[in-house]
Amino acid sequence: MTDIIHVIQWCQNQIHICNSSVIIFNKLFIKTHSIILQTKFAKGKRNGGKDLNKVLKQNENDEYFHFEKDFIQFSCNILLPIEILPNSHLSDIFSSVTLYHTWQNLSIINETTIAFIFYVDFFRHDPKSVHILFLDTHPKGNLEVLWLQLFHSYIRLGHLNISSIFYKELIWSPSQAQSELDLKQSRQKAPSYFFDFRQYILEKFNIIYSRINKNFNYQNLNIFFLVRHNYIAHPRNPTGEIKRQLINENQILNELILKFQNFSSIHFTFNHFEQLSMQQQLSIIIQTDIFIGMHGASLTDVLFMKSNRALIQFATTAWQKQTHFEQMALINNINYHRCLILNGHSTTAQTIFNC
User: Fold this and answer.
1) Has residue 186 been placed in a domain?
2) Distance separating alpha carbons of residues 37 and 157, to the nearest angstrom
3) φ, ψ of residue 147 in degrees (nearest 5)
4) Which residue range(s) make up the domain with 250?
5) What's the rounded Cα separation, in Å, for the pair 312 and 296?
6) Count of the separate structural domains present in the chain
C-alpha cells in the first residue's frame, strides 16, 4: 500500500506564474518551461565528477555552487516572492531570475531534464527519455552506473561547456530533507510510485520481479549476512576506515556457519557490497529471506527485498536509537528486528543467532 495524500497535495497546491512557465508544487518542487541557464553565473571551486582519490580531504563547502543573478532567465519579466518558493536550495536559485529577449548562441535541449532526481511517474515521462542535471560538484560515486541504467543520460552543471542553454522543460526536484524517503517524513506507508520505481530499477538490471517466487518457503530459507570492509566512500574519510563493523567478524562468521549447518532448510551466505556491481547486489538481495547486518548504508537494499521477509539490524548502544532502516523496512512490508550486540565480545555470534 502506498501513501497518495502527498500527491493529492501536489495537485491541489499549485502556483502558476508567467503563463505556466513556472509551476510551483506545494512549495516543494518546481517545473519550468522555456528557460535559459547561464552557466557562467554558477560559481564554484570544483566542477564535480572527479575520482575520490583525487579530492581526498576536500572541504564539503567546495562541493556546491553559488548561483548569482542571471543564472536563470525566463521569457517574461517576473519577480518570485520568497514566500511562495520552496524552503530549500531552490529558494536561493530562484530568488533573482531575469528576463531574456533573444535566443542567440544557445544550445537547445528539447527533452525533459530533471535537476537532481525526482519521481518521473508524476509527470508521466518515460525515465529513459529523461536527462539528469546535477547542480553540485560532488566527486564521482558508486551510483554513476545507476543513472545511466535508469535514465537517458546525466551530466553535471560544471561539465557544461556552453555558456547559455535553453531547456524546453526543466524540473527542479526538492532537497533531500524534503524528499519522500527522508527520515523526517516518518512514513508508515510507501510513498506513491515507490513500488513502480523499484520494479523499474530491478528490470533495468535484468531482474524480472514478476517472475520471482514471492512466497515464503520455510523449507528453503535464504539468510544473507552483509559484512562490512573498509573502503573510501567520501573525501572526508581519506583512510576509508568504517567504524560500524564487527571487530571479531571472522570468528562470528565461522561460528554462525557451524550453527546453521545443523539446519538443512537454511542456506546461509555472506558477502560485502563494496566491490560488487549493482546487478550483483540486487540479485543477492531479491533472493534473500532474512537480511542481517551492521548498521550502515548498504542496508538500504532492504528496499529491494520481497515483501514479508525480515531485516535484522545489529546495533551497539551508540546506534540503537537510529531508525533509518526500520522505516525503510516498514514501507516495503519487511519485518524489522534490532539486535543489540556488544561489539568484539566472544558471545556476539550466539547473540546474533538468538536474534
Assistant:
1) no
2) 10
3) -60, -40
4) 192-354
5) 12
6) 2
CA distance 147 to 155: 10
Name beta bridge partners: 103: none
Round to whole Å and give the CA distance between 352 and 256: 8
Scan for cell 573525501, then name that residue.
Answer: 235
The answer to whether 226 and 299 are in contact (CB under 8 A) is yes
Given the C-alpha cell 543520460, which residue does it identify? 153
d(CA 106, CA 163): 8
Q: Identify whether residues 99 and 71 lie together within a single domain.
A: yes
Beta strands in the chain (DSSP E): 2-3, 14-17, 22-25, 29-38, 42-43, 66-67, 72-74, 98-99, 107-115, 131-134, 153-156, 164-172, 190-191, 221-226, 266-271, 290-294, 310-315, 335-340
pTM of the model: 0.87
List the CATH number of the domain containing 277: 3.40.50
In this structure, the number of other CB atoms found within 10 A of the CB of residue 298 comes to 20
The whole-angstrom separation of Cα 115 and Cα 102 is 24
The 10s digit of each residue's pLDDT in 45-97 is 999 999 989 999 999 999 999 999 889 998 888 778 888 888 888 888 887 78
